[in-house]
């Protein structure tokens, strides 16, 4: 867990974002405390606290005094919007760059995209 | 400073302020002819952190720990220990003596009487001693308070010392290679107990260890000493970003080496992996990823081996 190249606190933040995006952690639901995060993943509590501070800044989490950290109302929508915004630059462009490198023609990529089945296309959250 | 007023015996003392420490140009010589055990060491231990103290055998870790705990004074230079803004010379200073707990491999226990006698001694010595925590930890480590430490296995004696260190709740607690002889389940039980208790009762912990892979994520700060000198003292995150690994087509990988020091280079057919010493900025990272390279982190252990390598006597690959 958390073996990626980024600082550990960014990887923790990404894990929590992914859980909110996937709907595994609902809005207004409590997330792990820094102590729980620290002991579960054997990391320094300050590292966990740094991840929480980042997510509070982003409006993904909010703190209820004396109770702990909760998923903010509207957090999933905000994450969906920001991930859609960065999808082309951060996900698709590197993949297309790799395709260039491998000499895969654009037509093959287009064919692949058009021929791809959409078994889990969401019915409510239609992309803009 | 309310913490310093003598606590009444009935009410539990208020939580202590975590202690920090500062060393300035510290030299420690054990004999006049010997090499210095510490040779101009300057460093700061930030209050409230878990700081990793890393160094090879004989690097000066134990001497540094003994200075912080006022077991000895430096040959020259200054050592200051205390709460933020209230640093004092710890030597022959009763205040810092009761508030600094050093746990050495020997355990600092009465070996030839019941473990309970040692617990009673520390309960009287340490103002913030938590007897319930001590009992829970002894239970967890399967240590009988009726047994004499001399009759315990090395691992059990180490675990007993670790339990005393945690239950002391001292504003500065130093664990000097306390894990020796402890088996893996006991070590992880110790790390878990340390994190859980530290999170509930913030204080300053200095942990020296050779098992870097096992403990590096526990650290907020890291101090690396080698042959009596401080090689680095900085947040663990900064240590981690001192290196980077790149994997991909060999010719492409080499383009990104760009004059950096190569710690390791592996090649399998057309694919190469290099481990580089030197930070990689956001732009370089993006460029490398964009070019199709896999950018990875370098374990602190590998950086430590590189930093403390003896030219000519150690091989780079030796771990």
Automatic annotation (TrEMBL), chain A:
UniProt-recorded name of the protein: GntR family transcriptional regulator
Gene3D superfamilies in the cross-refs: Winged helix-like DNA-binding domain superfamily/Winged helix DNA-binding domain
Cleavable signal peptide: none
MF terms in GO: DNA binding; DNA-binding transcription factor activity
Domain of life (superkingdom): Bacteria
Key words, A-Z: DNA-binding, Transcription, Transcription regulation
Residue ranges occupied by any HTH gntR-type domain in the UniProt entry: 6-74
Taxonomic lineage from the root: Bacteria, Bacillati, Actinomycetota, Actinomycetes, Micrococcales
Pfam families, per the entry: GntR (PF00392)
SMART domains xrefs: HTH_GNTR
From TrEMBL, chain B:
SMART domains: AAA
Record bears the keyword Cell inner membrane: no
Cell cycle as UniProt keyword: no
Keywords for this protein: ATP-binding, Nucleotide-binding, Transport
Region Disordered, annotated ranges: 1-20
Pfam families: ABC_tran
A GO term for molecular function: ATP binding
InterPro entries cross-referenced by the UniProt entry: AAA+_ATPase, ABC_transporter-like_ATP-bd, ABC_Transporter_VariousFunc, P-loop_NTPase
Chain ranges of the ABC transporter domain: 21-252
Name the record gives this protein: ABC transporter ATP-binding protein
């Amino acid at each position: 867990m958390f073996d990626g190249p980024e600082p550990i606190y960014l990887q923790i933040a990404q894990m929590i974002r992914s859980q909110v995006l996937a709907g595994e952690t609902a809005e207004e639901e409590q997330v792990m405390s820094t102590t729980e995060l620290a002991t579960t993943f054997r990391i320094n509590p300050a590292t966990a606290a740094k991840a929480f501070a980042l997510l509070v800044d982003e409006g993904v989490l909010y703190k209820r005094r004396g109770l702990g950290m909760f998923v903010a109302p509207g957090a999933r929508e905000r994450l969906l919007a920001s991930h859609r915004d960065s999808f082309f630059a951060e996900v698709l462009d590197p993949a297309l760059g790799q395709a260039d490198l491998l000499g895969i023609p654009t037509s093959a990529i287009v064919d692949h995209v058009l021929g791809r089945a959409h078994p889990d296309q969401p019915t409510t959250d239609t992309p803009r | 400073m309310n913490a310093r007023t003598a606590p009444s015996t009935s009410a539990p003392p208020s939580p202590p302020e975590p202690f920090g420490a500062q060393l300035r140009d510290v030299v420690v010589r054990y004999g006049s002819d010997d090499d210095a055990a510490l040779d101009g060491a300057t460093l700061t231990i930030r209050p409230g952190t878990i700081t990793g103290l890393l160094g090879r055998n004989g690097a000066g870790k134990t001497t540094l720990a003994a200075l912080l705990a006022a077991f000895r004074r430096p040959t020259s230079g200054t050592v200051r220990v205390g709460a933020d803004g209230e640093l004092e010379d710890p030597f022959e200073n009763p205040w810092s003596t009761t508030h600094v707990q050093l746990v050495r491999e020997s355990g600092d226990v009465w070996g030839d009487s019941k473990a309970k006698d040692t617990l009673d001694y520390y309960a009287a010595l340490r103002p913030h001693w938590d007897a319930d925590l001590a009992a829970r930890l002894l239970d967890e480590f399967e240590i009988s308070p009726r047994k004499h430490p001399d009759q315990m296995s090395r691992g059990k004696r180490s675990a007993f010392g670790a339990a005393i260190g945690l239950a002391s709740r001292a504003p500065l607690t130093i664990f000097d290679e306390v894990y020796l002889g402890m088996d893996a389940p006991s070590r992880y039980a110790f790390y878990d107990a340390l994190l859980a208790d530290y999170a509930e009762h913030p204080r300053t912990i200095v942990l020296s260890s050779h098992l870097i892979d096992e403990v590096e994520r526990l650290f907020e700060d890291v101090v690396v000493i080698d042959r009596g000198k401080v090689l680095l003292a900085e947040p663990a995150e900064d240590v981690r970003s001192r290196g980077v690994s790149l994997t991909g087509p060999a010719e492409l990988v080499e383009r990104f080496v760009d004059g950096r020091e190569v710690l390791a280079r592996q090649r399998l057919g057309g694919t190469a992996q290099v481990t580089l010493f030197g930070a990689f900025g956001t732009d370089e990272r993006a460029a490398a990823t964009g070019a199709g390279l896999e950018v990875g982190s370098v374990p602190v252990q590998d950086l430590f081996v590189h930093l403390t390598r003896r030219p000519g006597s150690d091989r780079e690959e030796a771990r």
